């Protein structure tokens, strides 16, 4: 230690910076606002709805990516099961049983297995659906043709099913975002619809010439 009164005093160490707490791998909670978006269905997670956070490590730290709890059960059941085993929620939070969430996953798997390949035609079971081309209702028991339409999700483009009147098929096939090809359309309709050939032929007559 120096005796020179003019010598600068040694710098004192500042308080140690508090380390950020490490995030748990999973978090189940009620959404605190309506700003987060579900990474599964891409829709907003409304305030108060149960959501599952899965920790994501990034170059600037870690954070949660969010899913509706039910959406996660249908697509990422292994993560939901791990979150329940942790457990990733406060003791007082009312959450569905893991058995119920497993049931959602089984139902979703069955629906995916039974989903028809596009395009196909069917008889509208009710009069509640609307044609995505003209916006008018599709009458019950009338032909309802299901085509593919390209939908953008951020930087990704996916194909989703849309219902159209038989009379609107030709115009919809010409649309820029239509993902169904004109070439081979009639053959695909026969192959995918699960209907007898005469019924599909009747739908094709109602659709009209594709050229």
Give the CATH level 1 class of the largest domain.
Alpha Beta
Q: Please state the average pLDDT score.
A: 89
CATH topology description of the largest domain: first zn-finger domain of poly(adp-ribose) polymerase-1
How many domains, in number, for the residues? 2
Give the biggest beta sheet. Answer: 3 strands, antiparallel
Q: What is the percent of helical residues?
A: 25-40%
Please tell me what the overall shape is: elongated
- Gyration radius, to the nearest Å? 28 Å
Identify the CATH architecture of the largest domain: 2-Layer Sandwich
Strand segment count? 6
Order of helices and strands: EEEHHHEEEHHH
Structural class: alpha+beta
Give the end-to-end Cα distance, rounded to a whole number of Å.
96 Å
Give me the side-by-side strand order of the main sheet.
Answer: 1-2-3
Regarding quaternary structure, what we see is single chain
User: How many helices in DSSP terms?
Assistant: 6
Beta-strand proportion? 15-25%
- The name of the CATH superfamily of the largest domain reads Zinc finger, PARP-type
Q: Low-confidence spans: pLDDT under 50, at least 5 residues? A: 1-17
